[in-house]
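Retro notes, item 3 of 5
We never archived the inputs for the adenosine-5'-triphosphate complex last cycle. Fixing that now. Sequence and ligand:
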Amino acid sequence: MVHWSPFIVSFKKRYPWIQLAGHAGNFQAGDYGKILKRYCECEQQCLELLNKDSLHPYVPSYFGVVEKDGESYNQMEDLLSEFESPSIMDCKMGIRTYLEEELVKAREKPKLRRDMYEKMIAVDPSAPTEEEHKQRAILKPRYMQWRETLSSTATLGFRIEGIKKADGTCNTNFKKTKHKEQVQHALEDFVNENQTILKSYVTRLKELRTALEHSEFFTSHEVVGSSLLFVHDKTGLAKVWMIDFGKTVPLPGTQTLNHRVPWVEGNREDGYLWGLDNLISIFTDVIQD
Ligand code: ATP
Ligand code: MG
Ligand code: MG
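Structure as it came back at the time:
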């Protein structure tokens, strides 16, 4: 059974390490300054390509596959290693967090999921239909679509997954953080209203946007479930990277995506840049000139 931990997971290392999202046990310490993430072929291919792409400064450096205790891992740069007691935020980008192929597959082989039903009623006991209540289970695409209407994914093109601050406070309960004002409030709290850090983040986000608009990798991939990892510390260092490429897949042939136009099933658009535009605008609104 996979152990799900909604809060911080850290493992012993020469410096503390924090995992804000995903399954506990998916990560292990690597060589100094590196971490190991449970092997995923899709992620390996993306990291290899991204390390050769113009997006390289915005993704963790990749160091190949490593075997440990009979398991395979992708070894990559630990983005926290240059920070001193960092504050961290994970924002999952895009207007949907499942691939089109997952939707197609789920329809072909409908599988009832009790775990997703449990998660749904934990947030909103009135969300399941009468039939779903009777089955005490729901279909995966239904859960995913429902979840995206609760958070800001569907309306802003990104959602906050978790925030861990230098003072030790941690919040991974942003499932219902949907409106612009709620997001603004969370961002202000994340940076303790520090204007210098806010400005550094906006600068970095704008540079990332330009890099994305010119990236060969980005135009030729559907980027789903990927996050921006925000990290800053009291020295004023503030950076943002793209992480999590387990659901970033190449498009067939010469197909490209615009990443801003609305998603219509079949066009594979992910709304990544639309979400980034919104994120930059919300960050900018928080800055008091
Ligand atoms: P999920 O798909 O549920 O989001 P996952 O198992 O694919 O989870 P990631 O999203 O890649 O895992 O990472 C989970 C968390 O681990 C991130 O929110 C971040 O806190 C931390 N993390 C991931 N990669 C790095 C990295 N290269 N450096 C530092 N921290 C990282
Ligand atoms: Mg993730
Ligand atoms: Mg993932």
